[in-house]
Amino acid sequence: MEPLDTALYDRPSVTVDVVVLTLRGGCLEVLLVRRKEHPFLNYWSLPGGFIWKGESLDEAAARVLRHKAGLEAEAGRTRRPGGHPIYLEQLYTFGSPNRDPRARVISVAYYALVEQSHVREISEESGLFRLLLKDEENVAEIYDAKGKKYSLAFDHAEILAVAVRRIRGKLSYTPIGFELLPERFTLRELQAVHEAILQKKLNKASFRRKMLASGLLQPTGEFERGTGFRPAELYRFRREA
Amino acid sequence: MEPLDTALYDRPSVTVDVVVLTLRGGCLEVLLVRRKEHPFLNYWSLPGGFIWKGESLDEAAARVLRHKAGLEAEAGRTRRPGGHPIYLEQLYTFGSPNRDPRARVISVAYYALVEQSHVREISEESGLFRLLLKDEENVAEIYDAKGKKYSLAFDHAEILAVAVRRIRGKLSYTPIGFELLPERFTLRELQAVHEAILQKKLNKASFRRKMLASGLLQPTGEFERGTGFRPAELYRFRREA
DNA sequence: GCAATAGTGTCTATGAGACAGTATAGC
DNA sequence: GCTATACTGTCTCATAGACACTATTGC
């Protein structure tokens, strides 16, 4: 077997960028990190990194999640601190020839769904930003808590747009809203997650019926406490199904 | 701006592989090419190629479609010989560290939907093969016209499995079946496409209602000829919608 | 009792499947 | 007339939205 002649072709660098999504205050938010290098010095950007030798794409994404987002992970099986895995899925691969001004860099984008309490608080180097995607737009908009708008490094605003569209589409046939909630949650909380992602109000009775009929929710027999009104039952996601 | 230090990281080669799907004899088929090099010498494989400098991933996929599958294309806008574009979409990126025994090769897979008459006839170097994906399997099976089964090069049987699952999912919320048919077609032909992809019989009246209600079909006022039974009206896909 | 939300029941509209019935081509 | 398929009408069933009604908590 002769060695592969790679000199004839472009030899791009390949990175993995991870869109870490969470829910806070009824809004979809994304974890961004501040760049410490040129180009786009001091711009906010998606956490990412180059692929290492001997590492699969999934493993690289889990490593980025662990090192850059502080989310515990095992090789290939990223886990929440609590124990069960963080939702992590490949999104799309971005490879416009000039998306990085330094060199040819192809980015395999992933997205992760994380419960808000597991994400580090905002700091100088990283933070959660509100994520807004208008219909018909192909770039997402990013705001901090004060409502200030930011431009992102590279084509990361486009990657975010693809991520939001993907999760909206996915939600319409899969109830992945769980992944943004603690292990036990009420149906009201789950409905709020769906409403925040889909950006529209849902019918309460219908939402309950559909969720319970799916067989994916397991009632725990326990209830909320100290709500000031009738407490709702807590459910758990049946991951085996 | 300092140059990117790429020596610290793995520098994989990046290829594009295209799953060209078509419909023949009521079955989903895929275009494969025979390898002329090691590894997997003489094995059938997906048409593919390395990414060139200055070329986007979409453009690379269109080029592979044009050169290796003989399907006319313009930069970024692959077109059928007749005039309207061939459906071409990014599928998934495969990057297991040992998927190519020679070197680290990451493959960005695309899939294309093509009318059967536009695909070259079977030859020594390329041909159409019947494509079968069993439930719960993560590799597809490949058969020639005589029913002989083949093993594919690299992880291409896995790529095909992902492609079949993607098109099945897509069909349930988008009527991409057109893309496998000539410009004008009957509702019976369209239904046959859906049945072949989804691997199940559909209700005729219901299928008609749904398709006509979608507003995506334009009646031409013309009819089939020489069928031996009542001829059906020919429809056209309204691409502007 | 009041406020607020949990959880249920009922009506309606919509859309899919089943199936029968009429229409139209070649023979 | 016969056959095969096109195309339509109707019934039923499942599901979603609308909305009202009862239940349960803290105050």
From TrEMBL, chains A, B:
Its EC number is 3.6.1.-. One of its GO terms (molecular function) is hydrolase activity. Keywords: Hydrolase. Residues 9-155 form the Nudix hydrolase domain. PROSITE patterns: NUDIX. The keyword Magnesium does not apply. InterPro entries: NUDIX_hydrolase-like_dom_sf, NUDIX_hydrolase_dom, WH-like_DNA-bd_sf, WH_DNA-bd_sf, WHD_NrtR. Gene3D superfamilies: Nucleoside Triphosphate Pyrophosphohydrolase (3.90.79.10), Winged helix-like DNA-binding domain superfamily/Winged helix DNA-binding domain (1.10.10.10). This is GDP-mannose mannosyl hydrolase. It comes from Meiothermus luteus. The gene is gmm.
